[in-house]
Amino acid sequence: MRQPVGVGDVTSGLLLVKLLQGATLQEALEHVTAAVYEIMVTTKAMQEYELQVVAAQDRIAKPEHISAQQSSEISHFGPQRPVGRWLLL
């Protein structure tokens, strides 16, 4: 499977939106991290390399908070490193 493309673009776009909506930097980063994770999970489940943003739109708007332990059940695209209570891919 190919590595997904556009992760940086979606990350910076979501971060800008959350900051413009008035979120603190911490709140924005927490939301963006969870939302990007949801996009990656959806993309992996659909066996695609192009980010499945439309398919994940509800999970982007209201992402579930996933801990490093919960995510260990999900196959990932690359190295992981826990950051606080979030997991960065």
How would you sum up this structure, described in words?
This protein is mainly alpha-helical and 89 residues long. The chain has one domain. It is 49% helix and 7% strand. It contains four helices and two strands. It has helices at residues 7-20, 25-45, 57-61, 68-71, and strands spanning 81-83, 86-88. It has a two-stranded antiparallel ribbon with strand order 1-2. Strand 1 and strand 2 form a beta hairpin. Helix 1 (7-20) packs antiparallel against helix 2. The longest helix is centred in the middle third of the chain and has 21 residues, at 25-45. The two termini are 16 Å apart. Mean pLDDT is 81; it is low at 83-89.
What's the number of domains? 1
* Rg from Cα: 12 Å
Biggest beta sheet attributes: 2 strands, antiparallel
How far apart lie the N and C ends?
16 Å
Strand content: 5-15%
**Fraction in helix:** 40-55%
- Helix/strand-derived category reads mainly alpha
Q: Based on Cα principal axes, name the global outline.
A: elongated
Strand order of the largest sheet: 1-2
GO molecular function: pyridoxal kinase activity
Enzyme class: transferase
InterPro entries: Ribokinase-like
Keywords: Kinase, Transferase
Question: Could you give a short description of this structure?
Answer:
By secondary structure, the chain is mainly alpha-helical. The protein has helices at residues 7-20, 25-45, 57-61, 68-71, and strands at 81-83, 86-88. Helix 1 (7-20) runs antiparallel to helix 2 (25-45).
